[in-house]
Amino acid sequence: MKLFLTALAALVLLGCSDGGRGLYETAQFEEQQRNIKHARSLYEEIVRKYPESDFGAKAKARLEELKD
Q1: Would you list the domain boundaries of the chain?
Q2: Calpha distance 11→65 (Å, rounded)
Q3: How far, in Å, CA of 46 to CA of 28, rounded?
């Protein structure tokens, strides 16, 4: 569990400087783990922080697909 949290923290930190890539990868992982609520939160964060990046566009698309 500690290794997982360390890896997750590293991905989030990477997301701060790479146009949202790290956050996007973390959101995808959360989707795979069926933690859709957290995935949505991460996608929303990407859209807020990186609206003009490729990952901002991808996050917007994922949010549309995850609508209830």
Answers
A1: 2-65
A2: 23
A3: 12
Query: In Å, what is the CA distance from 30 to each residue of 25, 33, 36, 56?
Result: 9, 5, 7, 17
Angle at 54 between CA 6 and CA 45, to 5 degrees: 50
The model's pTM: 0.74
Residue whose tokens read 């949290």: 5
Query: What are 46-64's pLDDT values in tens digits?
Result: 999 999 999 999 999 999 9
Question: Are residues 34 and 64 in contact, defined by beta-carbon separation less than 8 angstroms?
Answer: no
Single-letter amino acid code for the residue at 50: Y
**pLDDT confidence of 15, banded at 50, 70, 90?**
very low
Output the six-digit token pair for 49.
């922080």
